[in-house]
Amino acid sequence: AQSVTQPDIHITVSEGASLELRCNYSYGATPYLFWYVQSPGQGLQLLLKYFSGDTLVQGIKGFEAEFKRSQSSFNLRKPSVHWSDAAEYFCAVGAPGSNSGYALNFGKGTSLLVTP
Amino acid sequence: EPEVTQTPSHQVTQMGQEVILRCVPISNHLYFYWYRQILGQKVEFLVSFYNNEISEKSEIFDDQFSVERPDGSNFTLKIRSTKLEDSAMYFCASRVAGYEQYFGPGTRLTVT
Questions:
Q1: Which residue of A63, A66, B11, B108 is surrounded by the most CB atoms within 10 Å?
Q2: Which domains does chain A have, with CATH numbers?
Q3: Hey, are the CB atoms on A103 and B58 less than 8 Å from each other?
Q4: CA dist., res. B97 & res. A2, Å (int)
Q5: Where are the domains of chain B?
Q6: Quick check: B56 and A103 CB within 8 A?
Q7: Coil, strand or helix at B56
Q8: Paired residues of A38 in beta bridges
Q9: Nearest CA to CA, how far is B72 from chain A (Å)?
Q10: Given CB atoms, is B1 within the 8 Å cutoff of chain A?
Q11: Please, what are the averages of pLDDT over each run of 10 residues along chain A (116 residues)?
Q12: SS3 (DSSP) at B86
């Protein structure tokens, strides 16, 4: 069955430290991959996406993610975390070749806490 | 920058009542979606809509749910007879021919 796994429910990092949020997927083919961020009381904002090509993708707010086909992973990274990065982060996967709907399948999210 | 808007931001209703959640997608977008997020759980797909018809729906989207694009700008989700378990945040999303879905801020539905 198709699935998206974010192994870490909560992560706490110090401001200025580096960050890596993990995402693994199980799909029949290479899917389209996304990271969204949700601040408290807010909607879902797209951080970055991967469709094809260069496996290291850059996003907004200084985030990047690397697609590793061999590990079925799409981990999100940031070299230096700011207090404003505290939020919920969702990995999402869309299946190419599906009908025009192409629903997104979300992971359960990782809650990021940033300490001074 | 264009954005998806949703109204109301919070809706409280009694069990068994009908509710309509409204969304205004980004104006040149062609594909429309509804997702929901029950408190503490992941975001779940409900339905996608293209060319004035449903293109895909999940198991959650049963006969109690319907969607409509009544005019050129609005996209609505109707729940005919709400249940307690319908309490959730409902997100609307839209996209153009590319693949990114842009999400609205959500409507929190509370069924009492």
A1: A63
A2: 3-115 (2.60.40.10)
A3: yes
A4: 24
A5: 5-106
A6: yes
A7: strand
A8: A88
A9: 19
A10: no
A11: 91 97 88 91 89 93 95 97 96 72 88 96
A12: helix
* Cα B76 from Cα A103, distance rounded (Å): 18
Pick the CATH number of B5-106 from 2.60.40.10, 3.40.50.720, 3.10.28.10, 3.20.20.140: 2.60.40.10
pLDDT tens-digit readout, B58-74: 999 999 999 999 887 89
Cα–Cα dist A64/B63, whole Å: 41
- In this complex, the residue of B48, B103, B105 whose CB is nearest that of residue A101 is B48
Say whether the peptide bond before residue B8 is cis (omega within 30 degrees of 0).
yes
Element (H, E) at B22: strand B19-24
User: B11 vs chain A: nearest CA distance in angstroms?
Assistant: 15
Best probe of the B interface among A32, A45, A47, A104, by most B CBs < 10 A, is: A104
Q: Do A99 and B56 touch (CB under 8 A)?
A: yes
